[in-house]
Amino acid sequence: MPAFEIRGALVSDEDELLELAHHLNTVNLPYSREAIAHLLDQAQKSFTGEIKDSKRREYVFVLIDRDKKRIVGTSMIIAQLGRREAPYIYLDVVDEERYSATLDRHFKHTVLSIGYSYNGPTEIGGLVLLPEYRRFPERLGQFISYVRFLFIKLHREAFRDELLAELLPPLEADGTSHLWDALGRHFTGLSYAEADILSKQNKEFIRGLFPEGTFYASLLPKVAQDVIGKVGAQTRGVEKMLRRIGFRYAERVDPFDGGPHFTAPTDEVSLVARAEKATVRAVAADVPRTRNRSIVALESERAPYFHAVLAHWDPETGTLEAEAAEQLGAVIGSEIGVLSLD
Fold first, then answer.
1. Which string of DSSP letters, residue by residue, matches 201-238?
2. Which CATH class is domain 274-340?
3. Distances from the Cα of 162 to the Cαs of 79, 225, 288, in angstroms?
4. Domain map of the chain by residue range?
5. Which residues contact 213 (CB under 8 A, 6 or more apart)?
6. CB atoms inside a 10 Å sphere around CB 20
7. What is d(CA 12, CA 146) in angstroms, rounded to the nearest whole number?
8. 125-163: per-residue pLDDT in tens?
9. Model confidence pLDDT, tens digit, residues 265-294
10. At what angle do helices 140-154 and 236-245 cross, to 10 degrees?
11. What does the radius of gyration of the chain's CA atoms come to, in whole angstroms?
12. Is the pLDDT score of 176 beyond 90?
């Protein structure tokens, strides 16, 4: 049997997901039992369709070590970031050049402008893998990350035409954000941690207190300027993956910490484009190894609603290897989702 599997998160995963959140602690995956309980409730209702408005759905996937019966990773999809009651908020980053012929002096400034979207993109986020699982030959980070793009393809109508990924910038060891200390703290009177916690429930204070229009980053301390649009060491691998599959830096950053926003047209992301629906036409112990494994997923109306494994799949004959079929509960005639890892 496959040693690892991915399934939809359930409300019963609260304790284990809280442990994973400790490794990230962001707006998407906060280290808060109350927030995690709410997130899992939303996720389960999203998978079941109990949340009727598809734009309000939030999907959480968990990666399971079957031998240890332990959740070791997670990832998320937020169907739409930005609604009337909770806009998508960002800082546009623009380079502006100034020249004086009188002084023969030329300057290049970074200009920041706060923006709001009430009909925003689909966000992929909440990616966490326990450190001790990052070098497994199964490439588990890729597995828990890529499964989101397969799910998007299987339910394309439920997602936006643009995908967004927010990456963490360089932060101090204690979590300090130099950009927030130089900017947000002065306009809100809140510490970075206080503002981060509040923003999980309500972002109104940003719209009410942040300056409108544009302002020059060159007026900020250099330590704050240096993090704008930069990728932190812990997310450089994610950046490489995003660029490889079609994402680009959007010249936008998070207003809290300056972390860069990467975007891509949904249907132009290579993983979405090559994911497909298929039908199992045969099950065999040995499937030709002429290609690498695929992520193979099966959905059902019963918990956990979505189930995926790494498996050998022959698209020409519709043959799925027997061990994966047994693990998924797939039989001849089953409709599956497939994302080749070639």
1. H--HHHHHHSPPSEEEGGGS-HHHHTTTTPPPGGGHHH
2. mainly beta
3. 11, 28, 36
4. 82-119+178-273, 274-340
5. 113
6. 22
7. 24
8. 989 999 899 889 999 999 999 999 999 999 999 999 999
9. 999 999 999 999 999 999 998 877 656 689
10. 40
11. 22
12. no
